[in-house]
Structures are given as structure tokens and as C-alpha cells.
Amino acid sequence: MGKLGTLLAKKTLKNGNTKKSIFATTKTKQRYTDVKFNDNDYIMFGPESRGIPEEILNKYKENNITIPMLPIGTFAEFVQCCGGCAV
């Protein structure tokens, strides 16, 4: 997995809190509403054409979430999801 995998592992911050990578994917049934997010967590999105690599999704299955979209999903919906996460 190399450098990317190392960066994605849970990290401990100076104050003792951990930050966690959450992976948005269509390849899980765990909805974003089923996860308890912490202040230091962040959500990663892969390229629309191929998503986050399977190797990463498989290694961190408990951190995979899906954000349901309408069947006519568009880039505009993706942008709305990102804006909602940033609040």
C-alpha cells in the first residue's frame, strides 16, 4: 500500500485524540448516518471514475461509508455532500 496506506492509518495527535480516515464509497452498505464522527476525523473521496482503491477499502472496512444519492447522481450532488461535511 505504500505511503498512501501509511497516511491513512489512525494517527494520534499531540493532545492524545485520534483522527480517522473515513472513506466514501458506493461499495458498502454502512450509511454515513450510522457512524459516530469525531472532530478530528476526515472523509476521503476517490476519483468519480474509479473511486478509492479496493485495497484501501478492504483494509479499513469499518471506516467505509456511503452517502446515498439519487439515481441521477451528479457532480453537483457530490459538491453538496462535501459542503455538508465541511460544516
What key attributes describe this structure?
87 residues; alpha/beta; 3-stranded parallel sheet; two-stranded antiparallel ribbon; 3 helices; globular
Coarse structural class: alpha/beta
Number of helices: 3
Question: How large is the radius of gyration?
Answer: 13 Å
Query: What is the tally of beta strands?
Result: 5
> What's the pLDDT, averaged over the residues?
75
User: Hey, roughly how much beta strand do the residues contain?
Assistant: 15-25%
For the biggest sheet, the summary is: 3 strands, parallel
Low-confidence stretches: none
Widest sheet: strand ordering: 4-3-5
Reading the helices and strands in chain order gives HEEEEHEH
Q: Helix proportion of residues, in percent?
A: 25-40%
Shape: globular
> What's the end-to-end separation, in Å?
31 Å
Question: Would you write up a description of this structure?
Answer:
The chain is α/β, with parallel strands linked by helices. Helices cover 29% and strands 16% of the residues. The chain is built from three helices and five strands. It has helices spanning 2-8, 54-59, 75-86, and strands spanning 11-12, 18-19, 21-24, 42-45, 64-65. The strands form two sheets. It has a three-stranded parallel sheet with strand order 4-3-5, with no helix packed on it. The chain is globular. The chain starts with a helix and ends with a helix. The mean pLDDT is 75.
